[in-house]
Design a protein that fits this description.
Layout (H helix, E strand, L loop, with lengths): L7 E5 L3 H12 L3 E5 L15 E2 L8 H18 L7 E10 L2 H16 L4 E5 H7 L9 E11 L1 H12 L9 E7 L4 E7 L2 E3 L3 E4 L5 H5 L5 E11 L3 H5 L3 E5 H9 L9 E8 L5 E7 L10 H14 L8 E12 L5 E4 L6 E5 L5 H16 L24
Bound molecules: flavin-adenine dinucleotide.
Flavin-adenine dinucleotide binds next to helix 1, strand 11, strand 14, strand 15 and helix 10.
GO molecular function: oxidoreductase activity
Protein name: FAD dependent oxidoreductase domain-containing protein
Keywords: Membrane, Oxidoreductase, Transmembrane, Transmembrane helix
């Protein structure tokens, strides 16, 4: 076990998780090499929505971690690092059917139980508070204290503040082991070998091959849309809208199965006056492409809930690929069997929210301190023996 802070570290992957890990390591004076097969925020982090949200989390360890994640964004915004890059706003979870109302009532009780400020809105209150919503909306829960951040902007802030330059186009291909296979002596890359006291794998979907976890980590595609600016409509929305169906879509889809395409609506009014609208959950189709079926279904759902969007032009569509874990929880902690190897991945649709707090927590773990988030449910040892490192 790593007993005292290391003097050097390699972080593999410069998405939000790797960038945050590198930032918190560098803050302690630990020499960092942050390497990426491509470029900073080139994968999921650069193709995400950016809900920094407790509202969307399942009760339990994810909700508890998200509370810490949102709090850290607030702290980093207040201390200047993320000022202007973290937009504070509420999330309104909206139910349009009896099934969604039932899910929403249970979810609202779970959020309140976790200490989140929630407010139920229905009938006239709902119409007054949210005139942009269609009469289809039966009830809503306002979840206070949430926010939004653009993943690649956060990566940029973290790297700039720590002066870390990502070593681009450097793909890690495997580990060199020592001490009877208990320690990583170095890593091999397409551009030679590197050594450091500790290695952290934050390689998103690339982590599966490195850890031999292909049955445990699964790519999950998502398609999103961005509209033109519509300042009046934007100003009429006090926060993001999340359909009750989003909770159903997120909670019901276990990685490794091949369900039909899941669709859970989120409409986010951006600071630019535009709307970011998403999205799908697809366990088939690993490519970052859009298709007309998904685009038209997202738009149809969005206009049904916010009729004013019918007059707003669609500017572009894009897609990204999340990394899902078969049991729905991320992998954060020591790589099973390795004393100085760590992994932080598998955040599915929650890595923008959880990236910074995960980076901070894994660095605390590496340095022998109590992590800010309880990592016990995320411990990769739950899959020990089921993968073989590259
Ligand atoms: C459509 C969509 C919507 C989303 N919406 C939200 C949201 O609203 N809120 C939220 O919190 N999260 C959201 N997410 C999830 C979030 O984007 C991810 O959980 C998060 O970005 C994961 O970050 P990461 O650093 O783990 O991985 P990534 O961003 O995927 O980064 C991994 C990096 O590792 C590099 N890499 C891979 N293999 C290797 C290798 N062998 N050697 C070297 N480098 C390697 C890659 O090039 C990449 O840069 C969304 C995701 C998608 C796709």
């Amino acid at each position: 076990m790593q007993s005292r802070p290391p003097s050097s570290a390699i972080v593999v992957g410069s998405g939000i998780v790797g960038a945050a890990t590198a930032y918190f390591l560098a803050k302690r004076g630990i020499a960092i090499r942050l390497i990426d097969a491509s470029a900073p925020a080139a994968e999921a982090t650069g193709a995400a929505d950016g809900a920094v949200s407790v509202a969307s989390k399942r009760p339990g360890p994810m909700m508890a971690a998200a509370l810490k994640g949102v709090a850290l964004y607030g702290e980093l915004a207040d201390n200047g690092l993320l000022s202007g890059a973290f937009k504070r706003r509420s999330t309104f979870i909206v139910a349009a059917s009896d099934e969604e109302c039932a899910v929403l009532e249970a979810h609202s009780a779970a959020l309140a139980g976790a200490g989140v400020r929630v407010e139920m809105l229905s009938g006239t209150d709902l119409r007054q508070d949210f005139p942009a919503l269609s009469p289809q909306a039966k009830m809503a829960v306002e979840v206070h204290g949430e926010g939004h951040a653009i993943g690649y902007q956060i990566v940029h802030r973290l790297l700039t503040a720590s002066g870390i330059v990502v070593e681009r186009d450097m793909r890690v291909e495997g580990f060199q082991l020592e001490d009877g296979g208990r320690r990583i002596a170095g890593i091999t890359t397409n551009r030679g070998s590197l050594t450091a006291d500790v290695v952290v794998i934050a390689a998103g979907n690339g982590s599966a091959k490195l850890l031999g976890f292909s049955g445990i980590l699964t790519p999950r595609k998502g398609q999103l849309l961005v509209t033109e600016r519509a300042p009046e409509l934007n100003a009429a929305m006090r926060g993001a809208i999340m359909s009750g169906r989003y909770l159903l879509s997120k909670g019901s889809q276990k990685a490794g199965h091949t369900p039909p395409r899941g669709l859970g609506l989120v409409i986010d009014p951006l600071v630019t006056g535009q709307f970011l609208i998403g999205g799908t959950r697809e366990d088939f189709g690993k490519r970052e492409t859009n298709d007309i079926d998904a685009v038209s279904r997202i738009l149809t759902d969005a206009v049904a809930l916010v009729p004013g969007l019918a007059g707003v032009r669609l500017l572009r569509s894009f897609a990204g690929v999340r990394t899902a874990v078969v049991d729905g929880l991320p992998l954060v902690g020591r790589i099973p069997g390795l004393e100085n190897g760590y992994v932080a991945t598998g955040f599915e649709g929650d890595g923008i929210c959880l990236g910074p707090v995960t980076g901070k927590s894994i660095v605390q773990l590496i340095c022998g301190e109590e992590p800010d988030i309880d990592l016990s449910s995320f411990d990769p040892s739950r899959f020990a023996g089921q993968g073989e490192a590259a």
